[in-house]
Amino acid sequence: xxxEMCKIxxxxxxVDVCVHCGKSLCPSCAAVLSGKTYCLECIKHVDANxxxxxxxxxxxxxxxxxxLKGLLGTWKEVFFHPKKFFSEMPVKTSIASPxxxxxVWGSLAIIxxxxxxxxxxxxxxxxxxxxxxxxxxPKMVMVGSYVVLMIISPLLVLAGVFLISCIYHLVxxxxxxxxxxxxxxxxxxxxxxxxxxxxxxxxxPIFVTLYSIILFVIGFKRAHKMNTGxxxxxALLPMIILFIIGFAAAFYLASQAPAAAPVAGxxxxxxxxxxxxxxxxx
Length: 282
Prior knowledge:
two-stranded antiparallel ribbon; 10 helices; 282 residues
């Protein structure tokens, strides 16, 4: 793979990117402040106190600002100001705070969704997104399953965050990301701020997927000092691969489904879905 050359000093190779604007830098274009690399323009506008502060993220300074203020303040920064947030995010500090942040928002989304579905089941109303006539387990079994889901939600979020971080970090390594696994995990954990939108049926997961891609691009570009093109590929490639695997699995399972039993007569089978055996009609 050919080494990228500096656009200003064309005889020098690119060795880093600006953590603020993402511009590719050669040694002559780079300036380092508190362990972070900036271009000569951006460093003029950087607050040295913020750059030197390893707890610039409110959530990671919650012992001083308060739990709720740190939680909501960091959510707001991730959602509304992702470029600033990921530029200032430390990449080599503890992963405990980012993981707890992901657990709070991810578990909250699961608990709210499960609780609402449990209330729907108890009220006798049909669950959304299910075809009419779908056979369901007994009511108390469904309620119990939602209670269990709420209890184990932190474990599910924790396992999901680590699994997805591992997948993304493999792609980061393929494209020569500058930092280690911690940087990838921190990007994934703080992007999980979007999980709360999953409580909105249909539109919520679609929005979360699309905006997550944007946050991944911004986060990987700054945390791993990549150019925009590489960050876009890193953000999209795992999603594309997982989509293809999921589609192939669904197609395979559908192809293995047993054929419907033949209908004995038009009057008996009338109005019965083909997938159901005729003997179920009374």
